[in-house]
Structures are given as structure tokens and as C-alpha cells.
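Hi Y.,

Following your request, here is the sequence exactly as I used it, all 104 residues.
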Amino acid sequence: MLILRVLGVWLMLLAVVALVYDGTRMLADNGALVFTSLGEHWYSIHPESLNAAQAGIERHVAPFLWDPVITTILLLPAWIVVGGLGALLYLLGDRRKRLDVFTN
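Below is the corresponding structure, written out as C-alpha cells. Let me know if you'd prefer a different format.
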């Protein structure tokens, strides 16, 4: 599961970049607490794909899924969402050796 671990590390690095971006915005705003939401980052990078994702999910998956669920996720700070997803993927890809406590 090397792919999951590599993808998890990349997402956690992306979360650090988003956190540094928010930190520099805080310094520019004289220390005011500023967090950029995932939706703001997505809209600033590629607004057409955000609109297409909304239309596709509302038409083809379920209309109620966009408004309460995905909108809530898009309003969270980007570093929390991306970092959490990265940590989850890393843990899913981690191969832990089973410890057999009954053998010496």
C-alpha cells in the first residue's frame, strides 16, 4: 500500500502549504486570525470545476448531498481537511507487523 502512504504524505505536505499561506495572511492582517476555507482555495484555483462538481453531484448523485454535507466540508479550513485526509490515507496504507504475544 505504498501508493496510499505516498498520497497521504503529499496531502499532508499540501496541508502544511495551506497552513503557511494562512499564516502569512495572518501576519499581513496584523495578527488577525484568518483561515482560508477549502472552497475558497478551490474557487481561486479553478472555479469552473467547482461549479461542475456542484452540478454533477446535484444531478447525478443526490441533491441533498451537496448542500448540507459537501458545503460543510468546503467551509472548513483547507489545512484541516487536506491534512486529515492525508493522515487517514497514510494510516490506511501503513503495514503494521502483527505482534504475536503467545510465542517467545
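The radius of gyration is 18 Å.

Thanks again,
Q.
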